[in-house]
Amino acid sequence: MSDLTELGAVMHEEHFRTLVLICGLENRVTGEFADRPIDLHDVEDRTLLENLVVGLEEIVGHNAFEETVLFPLLKDVGADDLAVLLTQEHFAMGPLAKKLRALAVEILEQGSSTDRWTAFCDAATDFATHLMLHLQKEETTVVQHLGTLLDPDVDHALALRRTTERDGGKLGSQAGKAA
Ligand SMILES: [Fe+2]
Ligand SMILES: [Fe+2]
């Protein structure tokens, strides 16, 4: 991965963090304890749900950056079909992420039940399947090729813009929580 551009490294790191989150989720909903509903008294279970809620919000920000900034640039360099395809995948994943987040919040606020857990597992599996394929596609078609797709100055400016937006957003939400 040493040939990633600055923006490529930023996007790759965000994809990697998402991957870690989703792999942990998949292990919980399909692994050896999948038939045991999440237990809010279990620190690992609770942390998984809390991290999922935050992580899904970060994915929304990541996707918004791609849709409004990165994909239009792909169109500018003739990769229209790819930009359209990746945007369609975002649109398909949006409602799945929203549903999964709502179920995670519901369990955190109202506790787990067999029905709620089953719905959560289904939503998690559905979202994870779509997301994994999407991340793989973006990594191989966009992230690893930004050096040829974007001018180095544009790449640098976008890397800066993304990290500023992302970290500014985090600081803002922390300040909001503290207030
Ligand atoms: Fe994406
Ligand atoms: Fe992405």
* CATH H-level homologous superfamily name: nmb1532 protein domain like
Report the portion of residues in β strands.
under 5%
Integer count of domains: 1
Q: How many DSSP helices?
A: 6
**What is the distance, rounded to the nearest whole angstrom, between the alpha carbons of the first and last residues?**
41 Å
Roughly how much helix do the residues carry, as a percent range? Answer: over 70%
CATH architecture: Up-down Bundle
Query: Unreliable runs, pLDDT <50, ≥5 residues?
Result: none
Main β-sheet, in a few words? Answer: none
N to C succession of SSEs: HHHHHH
Task: Name the ligand types.
Answer: fe (ii) ion
Key phrases:
Four Helix Bundle (Hemerythrin (Met), subunit A); binds fe (ii) ion; mainly alpha; about 180 residues
General description of the model:
This protein is an all-alpha fold and 179 residues long. Helix content is 83%, strand content 0%. It has helices at 6-30, 43-76, 80-110, 114-141, 146-149, 152-178. The longest helix has 34 residues, at 43-76. It starts with 5 loop residues before the first helix and ends with a helix. Bound molecules: fe (ii) ion (2 copies). Residues 11, 15, 62, 66, 138 line the site of one fe (ii) ion.
Secondary structure layout:
Blueprint: H1 6-30, H2 43-76, H3 80-110, H4 114-141, H5 146-149, H6 152-178
Helix pairs in contact: 1-2, 1-4, 1-6, 2-3, 3-4
The structure holds fe (ii) ion (2 copies).
